[in-house]
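=== RUN LOG ===
request id: a7f3
mode: sequence -> structure
chains: 1
length: 117
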Amino acid sequence: QVQLVESGGTLVPPGGSLTLSCVASDRTFDPYIVNWYRQAPGRQRAFVASLSRAGGLTNYDEAVKGRFAISRDNAKNTVYLQMNDLKPEDTAVYYCNARIDDWNEYWGQGTQVTVSS
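=== RESULT ===
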């Protein structure tokens, strides 16, 4: 079965940049939409960004719009989240999500991003 593995999370100072990656274990995996979510301490898991297969349409949470960019490389079975101008408020565990249909989806285990001096 398909597994999603996130990587790239680390400690970064405010104003810095990071690129997170999410790799699917199955090269035939073809979700119709991929997403990034995040969960900060004491808060509920929140939507960050999405990318649809049809049309390559993107959507972003208002808090990250203009700073984050979601993309995918189908040849590498990888989804990316480019994060720029990071703020302490961006500190969270970031999760990759992929939806097959209305009833089936996959989640990664999460990668920790800490924005601090």
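=== NOTES ===
The chain has no helices and eleven strands.
The CA atoms of residues 5 and 30 lie 16 Å apart.
=== END ===
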